[in-house]
Amino acid sequence: MLVEQALLLQCQKGDQSAFRTLYNTCAPYVFTIVKNYFSEDHDRKDVLQEIFAHVFTSLDNFDLNKGSFKSWMSRICVNQCINFLRKNSRLNMVYTIEIMEDIEYDTLETLEKFTEKDLENMLADMPEGYKTIFLLSVIDEYSHREISELLGITQETSRSQLFRAIKWIKTNILNTSNMIQYGLLQ
Q1: Using one digit for the tens of pLDDT, what is the confidence trace for 89-141?
Q2: What stretches in the chain show pLDDT beneath 70?
Q3: What pLDDT score was predicted for residue 90?
Q4: Residue range of the domain that includes 112
Q5: CB 133 within 8 A of CB 162
Q6: Phi and psi for 161 in degrees, rounded to 5?
Q7: Dihedral of the CA atoms 128, 134, 136, 141 (nearest 10)?
Q8: Fewer Cβ neighbours under 10 Å: the N or C end of the chain?
Q9: How far from 141 is each of 83, 177, 185, CA to CA, in Å?
Q10: How far is Cα 75 from Cα 77, in angstroms, rounded to an integer?
């Protein structure tokens, strides 16, 4: 997603055609982030609208010296997805203390063999709390410190939710019938 600085300046001046161009340029990228967090089309549309409303009203805050427009927009996307989940009481975390084993990285390596569409279909049934932490940590590469600040939870809760998400994946996705279905086992 390449956005010219001239286009951003036109948007900051209120040029409606520039807003349309910015939307058309960025919508596919934004949608790839949103579809990971939400499986329902009406949720996706609502969040997409909230993201672009926020982007358009916050363009004056974008500073090219602090980073790329893509990373700025990505941060807004993730924050708006989290806000939407929180606002609709769908961000449920299990707050229990448990002894966690080391994350089995072979599980993550196995997931790399799946196509994006297969992974999206499989994660659609994952509980929201697990899925949110999994996406933030594994896909969006946020640290547990960043996740804890973003969600208002402890780093330990973030780690615990990631552990549970990976356990859920192993139980519900990486079983023999699903592995055969997705062509990973013969």
Answers
A1: 656 555 444 444 545 556 666 667 777 777 777 778 888 888 899 989 988 88
A2: 1, 89-111, 176-186
A3: 59
A4: 105-181
A5: yes
A6: -65, -40
A7: -170
A8: C
A9: 19, 30, 28
A10: 5
Report d(CA 102, CA 89) in Å as an integer.
30
Q: Does residue 58 share a domain with residue 111?
A: no
Instruction: Identify the three-state secondary structure at position 39.
Output: coil
164, amino acid identity: R
Rounded to whole angstroms, how far apart are CA atoms 128 and 39? Answer: 10
Report pLDDT for 172: 81
Spatial distance between the Cα atoms of 152 and 82, rounded to a whole number of angstroms: 11
Q: How many structural domains does the chain have? A: 2
